[in-house]
Amino acid sequence: MPRLFSAIEIPAEIADRLAGLRGGIDGARWVDPENYHITLRFIGDVDGTTAERFCEALAKVECAPFALNLDGLGSFGRGRPRAVWAGVAPSGELAALNRNHEKAAVLAGLGAETRNFHPHVTLARMKRVRAQDVATYLSHNGAFLTSAFEVTRFVIYSSRASRGGGPYVVERAYPLTGRAI
Ligand code: ATP
Ligand code: MG
Q1: To test the ligand 1 pocket, which listed residue (4, 39, 123) has its Cβ within 8 A of the most ligand atoms?
Q2: Which of 22, 92, 115, 126 counts the highest number of beta carbons within 10 A?
């Protein structure tokens, strides 16, 4: 069964800046720059029919190109950090796009997402690192800010079946040609 998620790709010049943030937390696994992305909707391991339904529903999403920029760093997992990420500056277009991907997932027969959408680019994953090391890293690098970049398409990526992880493969690409949402 394919393991899928929809996402926005990160342009090379922004990925280069993010790559400059690699290193500096003992024991962290740093994401390869070609795998940087912003997840819109995690689908997980699904059968071919569900995957096809999700693809079809996404094809009906209307959205015009829009600009995004990355602003700030943070972590998931308070006392036991499990990821360090770059945040996305608030964007109404991105929030609307996420809502449309959520609708497409439900149309495809998947359960509704109950967690809030927190758009980010994961930079590192970790299991047993010291929370203090993450706090120190964030205090040194947290003022990270990029210039705006244009989002001109979204994609469906596959990751490694059942276990996840890169390299991610673009399975479908959807150019943003629709009217503004
Ligand atoms: P690994 O699991 O090996 O660390 P990964 O998390 O990148 O790798 P996947 O588990 O396939 O690989 O996840 C793909 C993308 O979806 C990642 O951006 C991940 O953060 C996100 N994701 C995974 N699980 C969920 C979930 N339950 N809810 C929301 N997003 C998720
Ligand atoms: Mg995962």
Answers
A1: 39
A2: 126
Question: Into how many domains does the chain fold?
Answer: 1
Q: Would you say residue 180 has pLDDT above 80?
A: no
Q: β-strands 37-45, 149-151: how paired?
A: unpaired
- DSSP H or E segment with residue 42: strand 37-45
Expressed in angstroms and rounded, the spacing between residue 171 Cα and the centre of ligand 2 is 18
Token pair of 179 as six digits: 């009217």
The pLDDT tens digits for 55-89 are 999 999 999 999 999 999 999 998 899 999 999 99
Report yes or no on 181 lying in a domain.
no
Q: Which CATH number belongs to the domain containing residue 18 in this structure?
A: 3.90.1140.10
